[in-house]
Amino acid sequence: MLALLALVPALPLAGFAILFASAGSLPRRWIAAIGIGSVGISTILAFIVSAAFLAAPRPYREVVWRWIAVAGFNPDIGFYLDALSLVMMLVVSFVSFLIHLYSAEFMAEDEGYSRYFAYMNLFVASMLVLVLADNLLLLYLGWEGVGLCSYLLIGFWYRDPANGLAARKAFVVTRTGDTAMTIGLLVLFTHLGTLQIQPLMQRAAASWPAGSGLAIAAAGLLLGGALGKSAQLPLQTWLPDAMAGPTPVSALIHAATMVTAGVYLIARTHVLFELAPPVQAAVAVIGALTLLLASFSALNQTDLKRILAYSTISQIGYMFLALGVGAWTAAIFHLMTHAFFKALLFLAAGVVIQRLHEEHDILLMGGLWRRLPLAFWSFLIGSAALAALPFIDAGFYSKDLILWDAWNSGPYGPWFWAAGIVGAFVTAIYIFRAVFVVFFGPVKAEPAGHIGYQVAIPLMVLSALALGGGFVELPGYLGDVPAFSGLLSAALPVPPALRAATAAPSLEGVLVGIGAVVPVLGAAVAFVTVLHRPVFVTRLVEASAGVALQRFWAAGWGFDWFYDRTLTRPFVWLARLNRADIVDAFYTGIAWLSEAGYRLLSRSQTGQVRWYAAGIAFGSATLVILAVFA
Amino acid sequence: MLLWVFLILLIGGVVVWAAERLGDAWPRWVSLVVLAVDLALVLTLWADHYGAVVVAARGTWFADLNLPWIPPLGIRFHLGLDGLSLVLILLTLGLGIVSVAASWSEITERIGFFHFNLLWTLAGAVGVFLALDLFLFFFFWELMLVPMYFLIAVWGHERRVYAAIKFFLFTQGSGLLMFVAILALYFINYRQTGTLTFDYFALSHTRLGSATEMWIMLGFFIAFVVKLPAVPFHTWLPDAHTEAPTAGSVILAGVLLKTGAYGLLRFAVPLFPAAAFRFAPVAMALGVIGILYGAVLAYAQNDMKRLVAYTSVSHLGFVLLGIYAWNELALQGVVVQMLAHGLSTGALFILVGALQERLHTRDMRQMGGLWARMPRLAAIAMFFAIASLGLPGLGNFVGEFLVLLGAFRHAAGFAIAGAVGLVTSTIYALILVQRAFHGEPRDASPLPDFSARHMTVMAAMIVTLVWLGFYPQPVFDTAGPGLGNLQQLAAGRSAAAR
Amino acid sequence: MSVVPMQYGLLLAAVLFALGTLGVLMRRNIIFMLMSIEIMLNAAGLAFIAAGSRWGQADGQIMFILILALAAAEVSVGLALILQLYRRLATLDADVASRMRG
């Protein structure tokens, strides 16, 4: 049964190949059948493989063929299944399937239906390759593949140049990170002689002492790739713009799966990061900073999708924080729950936006909870999970685990914990602001159309998962169900620092209490400021400092402005300046010089016989004089 | 056998010219048949030896032909085929077929003469890849130059004469340097051994002083990097590529540039290893500069064909970097990079040619929104643009990654700087797609999309690129022994010098 | 027999040659230029004769005969060219015939 593993990524790839080769000549029904069917069968296979794996949980490796064999460099097209890749595979394939189903109806009117499903299938294939790859080169293949699909799908509506710009920005920024990762691969292979992940980790642990320069360099370079892909500081700027793509794309690629690839990469190579404490600390700090910055930016966005985009950046910040403190399991746990509730939020937002004729501005929405009940309840459940309202939803358990591990992570633990708590507070404010603005208050625009089962089923399933997905891992005070961490313990062992840390039960109670109260407080603040007493916000916003701050936050803390001035514009300016190629001026110069010489000499060619005669006479006279007197 | 690989093209060229009288379609079909027969011939050679090469039982050389030509001067007609030559000849003939197909509707005047020039250029290139006598090598080197000059000057675009003369002067001037270097080597060898010979293996035993070796090496080096081209000798290339007819651009980019790389691999490094190793940092720096400089310039162009031309400079920078890293990883990377570049850039030139046929302009400011009007052509352009930026799973990635991996061992700094090229290549590839195909269409009227003939050619190239990306092992196995042989030769010579 | 000193002969030859040169350079009429060339040739011949008689050698006279033959050939070719020139340009002005100007 395990041998079916290779088919899991192969089927969506085949779907892509068929759709690409048919070049849009198939009827829509077939396109949807191929697009959804390939991912659906792949999901079923993923579950079968998982069942086989769980029956005897030992890592399984399957080599399909030898990719390259040159001078000791022998990467395979090979897949590796352990608990970590298992979780990722299930999340990716299942969420992808739901979103494909949703897309079949959501995109039904679009002219590029076939193109859309081709790209989506290619994405799923690449993402599955990424999570299942047994060596870093194949992982990199998936990594770039998802980046490409992200580019293609952000710019899916190619007629608007703004979409093209957003797509290119996403690709170039992430590829900047990927280049660091490429160099990281060069370092790893050159010094350890393999890119196959498991032997590589063993060799790294055996030959590099903790804190050695090479380990730091390698981990730092891989981190560069992770930062780009997961939109973390300082490479986060592309994600808000990436919302230019169709909403299901944002749900699948820019919320649930691709952007969490960085988290997966770090978890996959966690041995390397443990060998490089400064890099790991940097991961935690970057995570903490990103989650704060992004959540503040989300506070005053007016575009519904941009709110969700910033919240994605912020939530991945939580995962990075967890990775940085060594809480691998917590990071993956949050990755999973986040995939559920963020996909849910985007899909619900997609319904709202489409019903209101592509209206993105939340200030032009309102009172939709009666008009769009399914979207409302889905969005509400997703928001509750995102804000981590206590006990009832998955987000609470995963975030709680991260905060608890952060507290225990060492001398700076409480600071990380505090950052997480502040972030949770702001998160609750911004997402419930969105809920209250969009779904309550006066009705500003009437929705049109209706929801079919292909949209409804994914919303309901994801709602269930956003609520119940957290019960696979319950903390000690709620029955102690360590199913998830137990599964992952072989692949992601708990670092000694966290295992040893046991805060007093009373302290744990206090921390959990704070973690439970803060989101509720945040939601209450949102309620008061949006629905009950909007005057507070109005006054705050009208103050001059408030205006400046609002603008600054809304613009994502000025990163775009900074990069534009320091990188983009100089590059474009320089390139334009040298359009005619300065080097060519040298050769044109030579050509010009010889032409000038020719002009000069041709002057003497007067065509008059007497001049020539004079020249001859003068020349021979000179010669004679030289011969006689010299 | 080996002689026929080369002679078929020469004779075919003459036949094609004559066939013009029978009708317009004749030269095209005859050239297709000639190339197909030749390709089949080389493929059977490959099939015969593929297994043998893998077990390395029959040695490095698949075939060898050594006839006297001008005995008093020691000039022989010496051809030899190893894996490296074979791979490049396959590329040459494959692209030959592609370019005949690409000029099917583009070339309407003096069709016979056009195909004659095409076949003779290819014959020259095949000869270059086979020659093991330095005089013969030079002879072929010039042989491919003249027909190419005519291809540009007669069937080119607006500034064709300027471009053709520039191309001719650059390659001819640098070729002269090489000829001087060959003669110097010839006479030094004569003084040492008392025999007059241009033979590759005989000359590889010549003992050279350190300074002499460097000068002679530079003579070869400049000739080859002008052809490659490396910055700062690249400026003929954008003009020649832009002005040449589509088939000319395809052959130029796909085949003629490769002769420069082949020359470096076969002659400049193995014959003068000590000088080459001392010179390596400079050469690698030129490679890296080429990667970045070419990419930045490509980004800035408005003329689509010029953009593609500058991407060649960037891609061939990887080749130069890899050659001077001179280890197995990098050299295998170079071979794959050459093949992949030939295919991806060749395809992009065909696309530009097709666009020009339809829109009568190459200026991207006049394009935009073409996806809506020609979806198939646009999708294929997207594919090759992505191949050109080195996406994993396509041949270019395998080449670039292996080159970087090999170069990193040898000189980490250059490899890191070269890796930055991955970002710049993304920038130019995406701007090409954006400016030509995305955006709002300027004109709603539909344009004729790719015909079945074009689609077949493109599909073949796509399949080959994917094959190179996912299963490049046959190429490694074929080229490996030849490359190993060159490495041994170089190692032996530098040991003897010490 | 009183012998004219060689110097006188050479001096006369030099003067004649200089006159011929000046004639070639200064006259624009191409026939006069041709005549000036004849003068230069004869000056050279005179120098040979003078030198031959000084040393009592026949070489000088042989050279003079050579020059004479040469001059005759030159005149015939030159006159033919002049005829062509006159027919094409309808003038004998040498400066007008400047089509070879670079």
Descriptive terms for the model:
heterotrimer; A: 630 residues; mainly alpha; two-stranded antiparallel ribbon; two-stranded antiparallel sheet; 28 helices; 3% strand; globular; C: 102 residues; 3 helices
What's the short story on this structure?
The complex is a heterotrimer of chains A (630), B (498) and C (102). Chain B is mainly α and 498 residues long. Chain B contains 20 helices and two strands.
Description:
The complex is a heterotrimer of chains A (630), B (498) and C (102). Chain A has helices at residues 7-22, 28-55, 83-106, 113-132, 136-154, 161-192, 197-207, 213-229, 238-241, 247-256, 261-268, 270-274, 277-299, 304-324, 328-355, 368-371, 373-387, 394-407, 413-439, 453-468, 483-488, 496-500, 505-532, 535-542, 544-554, 559-577, 582-603, 609-629; strands at residues 60-66, 76-81, 473-474, 481-482. By secondary structure, chain A is mostly helical. Chain A has a two-stranded antiparallel sheet. Chain A has a two-stranded antiparallel ribbon with strand order 3-4. In chain A, a hairpin with a 6-residue loop joins strand 3 (473-474) and strand 4 (481-482). The longest helix of chain A is centred in the N-terminal third of the chain and has 32 residues, at 161-192. Chain A is globular. The mean pLDDT of chain A is 86. Chain B is mainly alpha-helical and 498 residues long. Chain B is built from 20 helices and two strands. In chain B, strands 1-2 form a two-stranded antiparallel ribbon. Chain B is globular, with a radius of gyration of 22 Å. With 102 residues, chain C is an all-alpha fold. Chain C has helices at residues 6-26, 30-55, 59-89. In chain C, helix 1 packs antiparallel against helix 2 and helix 2 runs antiparallel to helix 3. Chain C is elongated, with a radius of gyration of 17 Å. The A-C interface holds A 601-610, 613-614, 617 and C 21, 24-26, 28, 30, 33, 94-95, 97-102.
